């Protein structure tokens, strides 16, 4: 269940127009099954199978320690925000050059049916940083701009940097 601040941000930010990129028309919608962390979730794909989706161009703080990464400040908040945005909702996926990462996850820009650009929201509100991994660079400059703005406003994880 999202906290009050998350709910207010969802309501408030959803009403603000920031000239975000629009999804390709005619994209198929998928139901979000589970949110893993602040930048990864699972859908039920067209073959009625679970498919893990990794948001392109962003990196949310980790929620679990691994051999390569420590738990990040604001990771749980990023996951909660993504749950509030996506759990049991439909999403449209848009791809870039590479469709899969080295872990077999599908890489995508994600939109709600009403046009809300999820990757953008996470960076703009400070729940994730911009992270460019060529060749998927379609929105890299845009995400860096959003990160700078969130950082200058001390939003989200930037309060702790």
Number of strands: 7
Helix content: 25-40%
Q: Which structural class matches the secondary elements?
A: alpha+beta
Indicate the CATH class: Mainly Beta
CATH architecture: Beta Barrel
Determine Rg (CA atoms, Å).
15 Å
Strand content: 15-25%
Order of SSEs, N→C?
HEEEEHEEHEH
* Spatial strand order of the main sheet: 1-2-3-6-5
How many helices? The count is 4
Return the average pLDDT rounded to an integer.
Answer: 87
Q: What is the CATH topology descriptor?
A: OB fold (Dihydrolipoamide Acetyltransferase, E2P)
What characterizes the major β-sheet?
5 strands, mixed, barrel
How many separate domains make up the residues?
1
**CA distance, first residue to last residue:** 26 Å
Low-confidence stretches: 10-19
Give the overall silhouette: globular
Can you put this structure into words, describing what you see?
The chain is an alpha+beta fold and 161 residues long. The protein has one domain (26-159): OB fold (Dihydrolipoamide Acetyltransferase, E2P) (Beta Barrel). It is built from four helices and seven strands; from the N terminus they run H-E-E-E-E-H-E-E-H-E-H. Strands 1-2-3-6-5 form a five-stranded mixed barrel. A hairpin with a 2-residue loop joins strand 1 and strand 2 (40-44). Helix 3 runs parallel beside helix 4. The two termini are 26 Å apart. Mean pLDDT is 87; it is low at 10-19. Keywords: Endonuclease, Hydrolase, Nuclease. GO terms for molecular function: endonuclease activity; hydrolase activity; nucleic acid binding. InterPro entries: SNase_OB-fold_sf, Staphylococal_nuclease_OB-fold, Thermonucl_AS.
């Amino acid at each position: 269940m999202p906290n009050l601040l998350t709910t207010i941000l969802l309501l408030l930010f959803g009403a603000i127009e920031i000239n975000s990129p629009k999804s390709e028309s005619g994209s198929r919608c998928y139901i979000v099954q589970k949110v893993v962390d602040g930048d990864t979730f699972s859908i039920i794909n067209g073959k009625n199978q679970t498919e893990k989706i990794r948001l392109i161009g962003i990196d949310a703080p980790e929620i679990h320690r691994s051999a390569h990464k420590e738990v990040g400040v604001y990771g749980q908040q990023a996951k909660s925000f993504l749950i509030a945005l996506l759990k049991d909702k439909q999403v449209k996926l848009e791809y870039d050059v590479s469709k899969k990462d080295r872990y077999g996850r599908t890489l995508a820009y994600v939109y709600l049916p009403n046009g809300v650009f999820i990757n953008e929201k996470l960076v703009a509100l400070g729940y994730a940083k911009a992270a460019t991994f060529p060749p998927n660079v379609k929105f890299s400059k845009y995400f860096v701009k959003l990160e700078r703005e969130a950082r200058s406003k001390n939003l989200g994880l930037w309060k702790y940097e």
